[in-house]
Structures are given as structure tokens and as C-alpha cells.
Amino acid sequence: MTGTTATGGVAPDAVSCRGLRYSFGRTKAVDGVDLTVVSGEVFGLLGPNGAGKTTAIRCLTTLLPVPAGTVRVFGHDAAKERMAVRRMIGYVPQQLSADASLTGRENVALFARLFDVRRRERAERVALALEAVGLADAADRMAGTYSGGMIRRLELAQALVTAPRLLMLDEPTIGLDPIARTGVWEHITAIRAATGMTVLVTTHYMDEADQYCDRVALMHAGRVQALDTPERLKAALRDRRGDDSAPTLEDVFRDVVGGDLGASEEGGDFRDVRRTRRTASRLG
Ligand SMILES: Nc1ncnc2c1ncn2[C@@H]1O[C@H](COP(=O)(O)OP(=O)(O)O)[C@@H](O)[C@H]1O
Ligand SMILES: [Mg+2]
């Protein structure tokens, strides 16, 4: 799929992923994923713990190799043009990526230096990124004094300081209370509207994806089981049921995977639980 730009040129898709596979030993974490993220959209990769979301997103960021299949980011091959891909993306990992002993501004400045933002532009870009996530007033406080929602927004600023064309966020709202979750999403939405940036987000919160994503892929056991707009996925389930119920995206997911959501919030393996808790408690 390709889109036409305002100037009449053909814009490559932000992400084009064909037949992507990735295994850890005998565990097929990603088992043949095809998906396309159109330039400018907010795309949600949804699924329960263990579905393969983090592994897939790490392949897209070039942090993991692409052992089988092809991944292109704005037309650049993630296996062969890793640096070109890295220069276009911002990535907020699931794990904590901010340093509690630095101020918010110092944390963002560190990323600006690491990712080669030009020295004379740095101070301004850092300030703009902090402002974009609503942290201008708290910028000179230690990150260790921030709430969980503020930490997540700080990590968002770290990823934004390079002005990426594609922002990838892995479980941006995990472990946050509902108000903080809404705050994170409102900033993502506003930044997207202001910059036209493409956003790829993973989450296991179906309600958030329904509300904030243009299109979603439902991932289960390493595969994409359905992909469309939340509205069309829900309408299709309503048609299949042949009644006038109002299904949620979670109902769609249960229908598509045959009622088996696998590892639920209470489930997951020990590693998943430990990882979630560690992140949640650090973010406090
Ligand atoms: N570093 C790893 N070593 C071994 N197995 C892993 C590793 N990372 C993930 N897995 C396994 O791969 C599968 C997919 O995990 P992951 O991509 O983290 O899923 P999700 O992000 O959807 O929760 C799970 O079965 C998980 O246990
Ligand atoms: Mg994950």
C-alpha cells in the first residue's frame, strides 16, 4: 500500500513487514507477520502478554535482526540499512529508559547527544520536546521525583528529541492509573497532529487502542489474526453475530482467537510478570 503526498509524489509506507519470523530457541515469538503501517497513522499492535508484540517491534527498530522475512521502514530495509532506519525512528521501550538521578532536562539532553542532534540546536530541541509532553515546568526536577505518568512522558520526550518520522512505543501506558494513561495518550495524539509523525504502539489495553488508534492488528501466538480499523472490526463481528449488540474490541479479539486470550493480565509467564512489576514499581 502506498499513499500520495500533497505534492503528488508517492510516499512509501512507514512500515512494511512481510513474513517476519523470530524465534528464541524453540519459542516462535513471531511466526510470520505481515503488516503495513501507512505514513501518518496511529497504528496499534494489540495482544495479550506473550503474543510477540515486543519481539516484533524490536525487529522493526533494528534492535533485533530480521532472520526471516522483510521489514522496510519508509522504504529502507531493516536488515541491510540499519543506520538509515535508526535515523528515522524514535523508540520508547517497555522497560524504564529514564535515569532517576538526572533532571528531566538532563535525561532528554542525554538522548539528544547520543542520537547526534546538532550541538547548536540541542538546547532548543530539548526544551521543545519537554514542552510537547507537558514537562516544561518540571524539567529541572530530578526524574526520581516524577509520578509514573510523568516518567512515561519524559521517555516520550527522549524519543521525540530527534524529531523522528516514526515513533514506536512499547506498552506506553502499562502500570499507569487511568488519568495518567489518558495524559500519555493525549500528548501522543497532539504531537502526531502537530507533526504528521507516524505512530506505532503496542498495548494489551483494548479500550485504549479502540479510542486512539486509526487501525489495529490483533496479534496472538506470534501471528496477526485480524487487521483493520476498530470500527470495521467491531461492525464485522456485529454482522457475524447477526444481532444489534455493541461489541467491544476485546469481544472481537475473543471471537477471532476462538475465546482463548491465552496469557491474560493475571497470567503470562514468570518473566512477564516480573518484567511488568519491575517496570510498574520503578515507575511508582
Ligand atoms: N529474551 C527472550 N528469551 C526467550 N524467550 C523470550 C524472550 N523474549 C520473549 N520471549 C518469548 O517470546 C514470546 C513473545 O514474547 P514478547 O515478544 O515479549 O510478547 P509480548 O510483548 O506480546 O508480551 C513469549 O513466549 C516470550 O516468553
Ligand atoms: Mg511486550
Automatic annotation (TrEMBL):
Q: Which InterPro entries match?
A: AAA+_ATPase, ABC_transporter-like_ATP-bd, ABC_transporter-like_CS, P-loop_NTPase
The domain of life for this entry's organism is: Bacteria
SMART domains referenced in this protein's UniProt entry, alphabetically: AAA
Q: Name one GO molecular function term.
A: ATP binding
Q: Read off the Gene3D superfamilies from this record.
A: P-loop containing nucleotide triphosphate hydrolases
Q: Which UniProt keywords apply?
A: ATP-binding, Nucleotide-binding
**Which SUPFAM superfamilies does the entry mention?**
P-loop containing nucleoside triphosphate hydrolases
Listed Basic residues bias regions:
274-284
Region described as Disordered: spans on this chain: 265-284
Residue ranges occupied by any ABC transporter domain in the UniProt entry:
15-246
- What's the protein name? ABC transporter ATP-binding protein
Q: Which organism is it from?
A: Microtetraspora fusca
